[in-house]
Amino acid sequence: MVTRYSSRGPDVLDINLNIPSDVLKPEILAPGDLIWAAWSPMSVADPILSGYNFVLLSGTSMATPHAAGIAALIKQSHPTWMPSMIASAMSTTASAYDNRGQPIMAHGEDLTQLFPATPFDCGAGLINPSHAIDTGLVLPTGRTCSNSLPSPLNLNLPSISISAVKGFHSVQRLVKSIATKPETYLCSVLQPEGVEDRRRVGGRGERDATPLGVHPFGDIKDVKTPLDQATQKHRSFGFVTFLEKEDASAAMDNMDGAELFGRVLTVNYALPERIKGGEQGWAAQPIWADADTWFERQQQEEEMQRLQKEQEAAMQVAEELHRKKLADQLEGEKEEETEAKNDPMAMAEAEAIKQSS
């Protein structure tokens, strides 16, 4: 949950003129509420906490160390990565869902108000360390920037922010594969409301449209996403997703045989690739399988889910019957107790016992 005091976007270049910067802020969400943190026992600024080595703290100063620590772990696992690669790995693998699988919520102006969090509340989402270390694509930038950009739109960031969408915009992003073996990705775009999306994926300098590509290590691909908005919808959000093979199987089936620019597409599975071993246990298990193996495992998982649901339903019925039985027994005991109290013979017998004692 995004707390009420957490910083919100959008960011602006000039707060007085309210000129937007077209750079998404915040970039990511990290734990920062009631964190058990180190504290100076001198506590000059807050005497009431004098003598304590640890206290509960909240704020950006608590969320930032979490993000910095995760960045250090990524740097340890990938020593050659530049800061931009580390930052993009953290953003592109963040989650928009909480630990219950529900969308992350955000406080409104009133603490009793809760709304689904938007990118202006939590950026890319909640940071996920294990996924960030094991990402497949990053968005690199150079160490120096000698040329000024006409617009922040083409900064190679893992987000695209356009404050004034009028007519046609072409936005470019460079993604780099950091895998040691070829991998196949499907570029999926969930465009904002009222926006028409046309994407082009190809190698540097190429202009041929291709829905899928196999990228060897270090190969950089350009992705151009033109946006054309007819209705000026305020604060509309879209998402670009690079799906791995297993995630994209359904989309591939839908695309196979489709027509694009007068040509029929043939979309099938890439050759199976298996990655075993790895540093410190990462990717220790096969992460790809051929189509037959994948469908077999998928059927097994669906069968297990079906059996689990049936078992849960049966347990609920049994628990309900047990509760009803206990309620009936309790009701019967109350009725017997009431009848015993109203029975004249029982009352006389109880009175005789009382007098004899």
Automatic annotation (TrEMBL):
Residue stretches making up the RRM domain: 216-272
Biased composition (Basic and acidic residues): 198-209
Pfam family, one: RRM_1
Gene3D superfamilies xref list: 2.60.40.2310, 3.30.70.330, Peptidase S8/S53 domain (3.40.50.200)
Annotated SUPFAM superfamilies: RNA-binding domain, RBD, Subtilisin-like
Entry keywords, A to Z: Hydrolase, Protease, RNA-binding, Serine protease
Entry keyword Coiled coil: no
InterPro entries membership: Nucleotide-bd_a/b_plait_sf, Peptidase_S8/S53_dom, Peptidase_S8/S53_dom_sf, Peptidase_S8_Ser-AS, RBD_domain_sf, RRM_dom
GO MF term list: RNA binding; serine-type endopeptidase activity
Region called Disordered, residue ranges: 198-217, 326-357
GO biological process annotation, one example: proteolysis
Family, as annotated: Belongs to the peptidase S8 family.
The protein's name in its UniProt record: Subtilisin-like protease
Origin species: Acorus calamus
Gene: ARA12
